């Protein structure tokens, strides 16, 4: 409840100066309360502005970390595919090298005599 001293009663039978003094006190009290409210509202405005700034910072950080994570994930997937491709290619090259080495060994083991090689002569 409101305290009784906050209530001001203006009696129409009082003098005009007394009524004017009471009204001035009421308006002065109202202006002081308004000044207090203005300070409180500016503080509240700053708190709300800070909250929105924090929300904007969190959203920006969330988006940038999401993009960074996406780039890192694509990099890891690309490196995995590159590693797998390199391993498969190396295995195939080893198979081809083994086949050629076997053929080279067969060619080296067979001795060729000069009689087996046909002579190339020039024809005029």
Q: How would you characterize this protein structure?
A:
Helices cover 76% and strands 0% of the residues. The protein has one domain (13-104). It has 124 residues and is mainly alpha-helical. It is rod-shaped and about 140 Å long. It is built from 1 helix and no strands.
What's the helix count? 1
CA gyration radius, whole angstroms: 49 Å
Please state the overall shape, judged from the principal axes of the Cα atoms. rod-shaped
Helix proportion: over 70%
Number of DSSP E strands: 0
Biggest sheet architecture = none
Indicate how many domains the architecture comprises.
1
Mean pLDDT value: 76
Order of SSEs: H
Tell me the structural class.
mainly alpha
Tell me the span between the first and last alpha carbons.
135 Å
Query: How much of the sequence is in beta strands?
Result: under 5%
Runs with pLDDT <50, length 5+? none
